[in-house]
Design brief:
By secondary structure, this protein is α+β, with helices and mostly antiparallel strands. It is built from 15 helices and 9 strands. It has a 7-stranded antiparallel β-sheet with strand order 1-2-3-7-6-5-4. Strands 8-9 form a two-stranded antiparallel sheet.
């Protein structure tokens, strides 16, 4: 071991592996000007993973070290800490990572946050994530009620001729231009062309609707869905005002859920691969580009214009809520829900999707294109 001293801090470096033992209090002494490490646990930057495989060189076996994970922004590093004396073992290269982490924390703390302090913003983020995580038992009757209407209208689809069903529920831009069937701006969002169409929309509607209702509350999630669906249909009218092709489906409203999430929680991670993390804002950017491409030159059968319009409607709706400081805090039941068998399966599937994005994203894309092709084939058949 070679001993180095810098600013009153002693570092014993192993010439074989490049790692080093930082003297007690050394980390704080070196980094406090940028960020105080003693506050990292409370801020959620540091977390105790558990016992380390190393022992403190100063105490040997009498004081096994503990492993701490430090994560902020794009920096993710693990260090070994002796809880007896405060010495820290750094593997080769971890010192530079710690400096980068301290710089990142310093930049965050100096960032100007309008109307709220950093602590208030962190508290709001924590509350939002708790509500969107689905880990607390909260009623979501509004979402289930809207889904029940989806099912009822889909059953009606098989009880009457297709042209009768479309004349009652489907939105047709040419009819709106004549001032007819204005109610279909809303009713079309609850109707579906067939059972597969319902299942595809229900998958995303229930997953997103439940989380958003737990944060916004019942009235606002209904308002968000209806606003997004209407704006999606109006976008279809603006692009093709003379079209006689009817449009049905909840996808415009579901796209509005995504737009609202972009306003309410743009930093939520939707996928990760190693230290690389994909945030919601980036994922939605890619999805929006795909929708624009399909709207401009994609196959018929899927109303991509309504998806884009619905997304913008949800974006605007959530933006107004934020501007008006709504909704007010909704009390939630703090009793953890007992995980059911289906919930465990769903959680496992979600973990597989987010932990292996290089596999799951192409698979989801292929399934989506297959669904689009099937819709086109069915429309040609009719």
């Amino acid at each position: 071991m070679r001993v180095f001293s810098h600013q009153g801090v002693t570092l014993e470096v192993c010439t074989a592996c490049g790692g080093g033992l930082l003297s007690p209090g050394g980390l704080s002494a070196l980094l406090t000007e940028r960020s105080d490490p003693s506050t990292w646990m409370e801020a959620g930057i540091a977390s105790d993973i558990g016992p380390s495989m190393l022992v403190c060189p100063l105490h040997q076996a009498s004081a096994p070290m503990r492993l701490f994970r430090l994560r902020h922004a794009q920096v993710d590093v693990e260090v070994d800490l002796c809880t007896a004396c405060g010495s820290i073992w750094l593997d080769a290269g971890e010192g530079a990572q710690l400096e980068a982490l301290a710089d990142a924390v310093h930049r965050t703390q100096r960032a100007v946050i309008t109307t709220t302090s950093l602590e208030e913003q962190q508290a709001a983020d924590a509350l939002l994530i708790a509500r969107l995580s689905g880990e607390r038992r909260t009623p979501w009757f509004a979402t289930l009620g809207m889904f029940a209407l989806f099912v009822l209208l889909t059953i009606h689809r098989y009880l009457v001729p297709p042209e009768v069903y479309a004349s009652i529920w489907a939105f047709v831009p040419a009819e709106l231009g004549r001032g007819e069937h204005i109610h279909t701006l809303v009713t079309s969002a609850f109707a579906h062309a067939h059972l597969l169409h319902l299942c595809m929309n229900a998958l995303y509607f229930l997953a997103l609707g439940k989380r958003i209702e737990q944060y916004l509350g019942a009235r606002f999630v209904v308002g968000l869905f209806l606003c997004s669906a209407v704006v999606g249909n109006l976008a279809y009218f603006v692009v093709a005002p003379g079209s006689a092709v009817g449009s049905v489906g909840a996808s415009g409203g579901v796209a509005g859920f995504l737009g609202a999430l972009l306003v309410l929680a743009p930093r939520i991670e939707i996928a990760r691969a190693g230290q690389q993390r994909l945030q919601l804002s980036i994922g939605l950017g890619a999805w929006l580009v795909w929708e624009l491409i399909m709207a401009l030159g994609g196959p018929a059968g899927v109303n991509h214009v309504a998806h884009i319009g619905g997304f913008l409607g949800g974006l605007a709706f959530a933006g107004v809520l934020v501007a008006l400081d709504l909704p007010k805090v909704v009390e939630i039941d703090a009793t953890p829900a007992e995980p059911s068998g289906l919930r465990r399966v769903g959680s496992r599937i979600g973990d597989l999707i987010t932990e292996h994005p290089m596999i799951s994203i192409p698979v989801i894309g292929v399934c989506y294109m297959a669904f689009t092709a099937l819709v086109v084939a069915m429309s040609i058949g009719h």
